[in-house]
Each structure stands twice: as C-alpha cells, then as structure tokens.
Amino acid sequence: MSKKEKFQIPFQMKKIISSFLVLSFVLFSCSEKENESKEKQNVTEVVSTVVGIGKVLPKNGIIPLSVSQTNQVVALYKKMGDFVQKDELIFKMKSVSEDIDVELAKSNLQSSLDKNKANAMDLEIAQTKLNELKQIFLTSKKLYNQKAETKQKVFLDSIAYVQQLQVVNQFKLNNIANIQSGKEKDIQLKSSINKLEDQEFRALQSGVLIRFDVTLGQVLSSNSVFGELAEISDLVVEGEVDELYASDIKLGQEVDIFIVGQSKSIAKGTITFVGSSLQNKSILYETIGEGSDRRVRRFTVTIPNSNQSLLINQKVECKIKI
Fold it and tell me: What start and end residues bound the annotated signal peptide (predicted)?
C-alpha cells in the first residue's frame, strides 16, 4: 500500500465522523424545536381551560317537602323515584298533638256542663228563697196597713227581699253565660275531632321524588325537611370556579362536563349565567377546610339536550373553554 493510500483512509474516516456529528446536531436541534413546540401547545391548552365544580339540578329547581305540625304517617302511597302529578296524594297522616287537644276539649266541655248543672240547682234554691221572702214582705206590708206590724219590720223584710232578688238575677246571668260557654266548648271539641281525622299530603307540583325519607308509622316533625320534589324540566349545572380564575368566566363559553374522577366527557353545555360577585364556597366542597380557604364565582351551565348520563344532585367537573 502506497503512502498516499495510507493517508486517504484516516482522512475519509474523519470526514465520515464529521458528517455524523453534523447530522446528529441537526437531528437534536429539530427534536428540541419539536419538544418546545409541544410544550408551548400544552401550555396553551392548559391556559385555555378552567376547571370548576358543580352539581346537576333541574332548571326550575327543587322543592323541599315538610309539614307545618308534628304528624304521624298512617298511609303511604309513593316512594323515592316515583313521578307525581300536581295535587296527587302522596301520604295520609294524623296529628300527634290533636289526641291531647281532643281530650282537653272533652274535659272543658264536661266541666262547663257540670258548672251549668250546679248553677241551675243554685238558681232553683235561690228562687225558692226569693218566693218565701217575697211572701214575708207582702204579709208584713199588709199587717202594717192594718196597723198590726211595725214600719221597721216592713223595711227589713223589703231589704231581704230585694237582696235575694239580686242573687237570683245574678244566677240567671251566670246561667246564660255558662250556656254560651258550653256551646263554645262544644264547637272546640268538634273542631279538635275534625283535626284528628286523617290529613292528606299532596304534591305541590308535578315532578319526581328525588328524596323521600318517609316510612309508614313515622312521626314527622314540624318544619323538618323529609324529602325533595324535582320538577320535570331540562337539567342544568350549578357550578363554582375558584376566585383565581373568576375573571376568565364569561357568558356563552362552552363547557365539557365530566363525572368527578373520570376523563370521559358525559355532556356539553354553555354558560348562561355568571355571578356578579364572589361568594363563599358551598357544600359542593367536601374536604375539611376546603370550603373556607378561598371564595368562588358562581355560574350556570345550560345543557341543550337531555342527557341520560346525568343524574340530579350528581357532582361533576366543568372544564370551561376560555
């Protein structure tokens, strides 16, 4: 092998290595640019979406169910999940306190009747005595006219007669008052008996019983909510977004709805309401302290078409495209 050939071999190897280095640099530069482009795209995607938390509700809201006084359920016709029409009978009940009211009314009426009876007997005795005193007074007056009785005796007999007359008149007034009182007590008793009869609880509007904690024989406390009636209407999501992103929320923005903890969208909607101020977090936040660290802005998402994947009172995540 000549010297020239020996010199060309290393030279060619250097040339190949240089070309490889240049190619590697070019590929590395392209890879870096591609990674930067992807990172920029990811940053843009993150910035363009705000996540809020919400609850699925009927558009027209939910009516809480309660009774105005303590009652016991005596007949049950509906259960949770049933559809009801307006004024449809849900259950029958009777008042727990009305039993006592009836017994009290009976006692008051009997007391009034006994008092009337006693007053009538007293009136009869007083009337008999009045008749006797009247006869004595008339006899004394007649004897006085015949000059067989003193003037003082006639005077005393007249006073006794007048006083007894006043007693009789008072008994008569008492008797009239007692009779009237007895009539009032009788009315009270009839009213209490009517209240004791079974009362009906009917639906205030058409809808579905999404909560119904009622069993046969149960005693329902006054003004204590035992159920919820949701009107049959389109569903919406009442949501909240953290105050850090409050200014990014606007009317008309599109929203993807997800079940909490899942990555597949189950519905789509549009923001149709945005709160004008920040408020405290609601019960949508279940972690201790989660509802008090920062404030939120409320929003409503309208869902154009009914979606069977959504359930009333379901907690969902709302990814808002800003």
Answer: none
Residue 9, pLDDT score: 47
Q: What pLDDT, on the 0 to 100 scale, is given for residue 97?
A: 63
Q: Give the relative orientation of helices 98-145 and 151-196 as an angle to the nearest 10 degrees.
A: 160
**CA count, 13 A, side-chain hemisphere, 110:** 6
The model's pTM: 0.51
Residue 132, CA distances (Å) to 73, 156, 208 in order: 64, 14, 81
* Residue stretches of the chain with pLDDT short of 70: 1-47, 97-101, 192-198, 283-293, 306-308
Strands 227-230 and 207-212, how do they pair? Answer: antiparallel
pLDDT for the residue numbered 85: 94
- φ/ψ bin of 247: left (φ > 0), alpha (ψ from -120 to 50), beta (otherwise): alpha
Structure confidence by residue, pLDDT tens digits, 25-48: 545 555 555 555 555 455 444 458
Q: At 50, which amino acid appears?
A: V
Number of neighbouring beta carbons within 10 Å of residue 48 = 11
Same fold, 48-61+234-321 and 62-93+201-229: no
Q: Provide the pLDDT for residue 283.
A: 54
Query: Rounded distance, CA 81 to CA 85, Å?
Result: 13
CATH homologous superfamily of domain 48-61+234-321? Efflux pump adaptor protein, beta barrel domain (2.40.30.170)
89 φ/ψ sector (left φ>0, alpha ψ -120 to 50, else beta): beta
Q: Which CATH architecture has domain 62-93+201-229?
A: Beta Barrel (2.40)
* 89 close to 202: Cβ distance less than 8 angstroms: yes
